[in-house]
Amino acid sequence: MKKIVFSFCFIVFISCQYTFAGGFQVNLQGQKQMGMGHTGTGLLLDGASLFFNPGSTSFLDSVRLVQIGVSGIIPRTVYLEPAPGIYSAEMIHHVGTPFSVFVVGKIKNTGKLSLGLAVYTPFGSHEEWPHDWKGQFLLREIDLKTFYFQPTASYKVTDKMGIGAGLVFAEGNFSLQQGFPKQDSMGNYGTISLNGSANSFGYNAGIYFKPNEKLSIGLDYRSSVKIKMENGTADFIVPSSLADSFPNTSFKATLSLPSTTALGFGYILNEKIKLALDVNYIGWHVYDTLSFDFAKNTSVLADVHSPRMYQNTFIIRGGAQYKLKEKLLVRCGAYFDKTPVQAGYLTPETPDANKIGVTLGASWKVTEKIHLDFSFLYIEGMKRTDTNIETQFSGTYKAKAVAPGFAFEYLF
Description:
Layout: H1 2-20, H2 31-35, H3 49-52, E1 64-71, E2 74-80, E3 88-90, E4 99-106, E5 113-120, E6 125-128, E7 141-156, E8 161-183, E9 189-209, E10 215-222, E11 225-237, E12 249-257, E13 260-268, E14 273-282, E15 289-294, E16 304-307, E17 313-325, E18 328-337, E19 355-365, E20 370-381, E21 384-387, E22 394-411
Antiparallel strand pairs: 1-4, 1-22, 2-3, 2-22, 4-5, 5-7, 6-7, 7-8, 8-9, 9-10, 9-11, 10-13, 11-12, 12-15, 13-14, 14-17, 15-16, 17-18, 18-19, 19-20, 20-22, 21-22
């Protein structure tokens, strides 16, 4: 019974992580940046600088702009049981559609101050395994929706340096189902349904420095976020003999999510070629313990305080842009994303491993005011085998995904 409870609580935490910046991070903010390996800290491209480096936003040429983008994430994850077993399962195919909106306007009096608003959905997805698969007691289905709102101010201190900062308000909700490993009189397994919502605050601040016409350097810091879930609900459909042990209840949890420090470089090689390099450092050390406080406790449904001990990690990104024609730009990029999940903590919810991403992109200037951006991401995780130290669920996971993207930009 204790293993049942541990797996249940672990699912709740993973749900929140996915919602607000999970071990498996999905970064698709800005289609131009995506085409260049999701670089943008040190190279100014468009209004998505509100996310990548608010310090650079005041260097935009446009007085006002609106940019709306959307991506389609199509993942595929396969599970293989440990040898000598031959069982396998595949996550049911689906398409996620994270979007972003960036609005920027300059204050005309000085031309040095720019104000903006960024709205984006960096961690929303739907994942579903077959309901009778071998890991159904860990996860059957999870549905997550999140929205980040970031009002931002950027100021051009000199012709070579800009600073900027934005307040981040994050709001999201989730629902989840997993099987309950006890059968009723008809031979049917029970169900655990989880629902919750949470919101929190953080900030995004950056510095942009352009020592000459060719080189630009950026430093951006996105703060860690502490999320407080006050009224998460857990509903149990279990055999009648266990109903008293697993009452429907609520729970509280406080989760500290990681900061991101990004250092970026941009270089204009000539009038046709731009290059970018970003290094992201993720402060995952804040996720060291999993704790939950249940409103109703029983002999088998107790509060949980469990070590997780994620490790700090990094992402290295690089990209290039080439002006093919006056109205047509093409891009390419790649990145390496090191997993923060140490051995012993792999789960069906975060079958995380070191990942390599390859990107392509293009922009078409329809008119001087209307621009269209396109991007394509292919990401593949390394095959990884592990045994979870709490659930003792073992297996090998292999995950990959593609994400085409599109954005519409209007310049005023």
